[in-house]
Write a structure and sequence with these properties.
By secondary structure, the protein is mainly alpha-helical. The protein has helices at 14-38, 40-43, 47-77, 84-87, 94-103, 114-142, 148-155, 175-217, 221-227, and strands spanning 7-10, 229-232.
Length: 243
């Protein structure tokens, strides 16, 4: 294949590309700091060190959650290939497209290929679960928004101003209320930890699949997240009719 035979197509708009790289960087920070928190005892972190790590994790989590929220909105109003109709594995003809892709009949796709749409859906679901559980835990751990105020009012001891609560200050807490809060917190932390490791595995598979698809079918998937354009020697299956 030579460069003269390639036709380039605009695919990913600027907002989609920006989301991708903010998401990538924020997840890297979240994974790194999350592993430190998860292994706090092994690292010998003091209470102050653990609070600092959790605060850093939460701030990165805010960036991640806001970015994800905007991407979900962009799925309704964004460019043609950024919309949910092109990235979720539903809709008329999806089954036939999946069959054609797996058989090798249709391998060139401007947007996500049919298998990629399955992976993207799984990733978006996992990312959303992680964002929601993380925002709840930010309130239960260090009393950060959006739920920290409510949690502080729940667990503050009588006569203690909830706004003055600091993490790990047990003398400021009502023991019974704190115990109830920890039970409430349990399913959220368990889900957050499980999804953390599932996501880490999915990200590795995602990167491997992108590299494999780029080598096997071409298109410049990786470079397209910088330039917004893909290049093919044949007309992609999902290209507009007038291209």
């Amino acid at each position: 294949m030579t460069s003269e035979t390639l036709q380039t197509y605009r695919v990913w708009d600027r907002t989609t590309r920006l989301f991708h790289w903010i998401n990538f960087l924020s997840i890297l920070v979240l994974i790194a700091v999350g592993l430190v928190i998860y292994n706090a005892k092994a690292f010998g972190l003091s209470s102050g060190g653990k609070v600092f790590a959790k605060e850093l994790h939460v701030y990165a989590g805010y960036v991640f959650a806001i970015n994800l929220f905007w991407r979900l909105i962009w799925g309704f109003i964004g460019g043609a290939y950024a919309r949910f109709g092109r990235i979720l594995p539903f809709g008329k003809g999806y089954g036939a497209d999946l069959k054609a892709y797996r058989s090798g009949e249709k391998t060139a796709w401007l947007g996500h290929n049919p298998m990629g749409r399955l992976a993207v859906t799984a990733l978006l679901l996992l990312l959303t679960i992680q964002a929601v559980t993380g925002l709840v835990l930010a309130g239960t751990d260090i009393y950060f928004p959006p739920f920290g105020g409510m949690i502080a009012e729940w667990v503050a001891a009588e006569g203690v101003d909830p706004a003055t609560l600091v993490p790990y200050a047990r003398e400021m807490l009502d023991p019974a209320a704190y115990k109830d809060m920890r039970e409430f917190r349990g399913p959220f932390i368990e889900t957050h930890e499980i999804v953390f490791f599932v996501l880490a595995g999915m990200i590795v598979l995602h990167i491997a699949a992108v590299v494999w698809s780029d080598i096997r079918h071409g298109g410049g998937i990786i470079s397209a997240m910088f330039t917004g354009r893909k290049a093919f020697s044949e007309k992609p299956a999902d290209a507009p009719e007038d291209d």
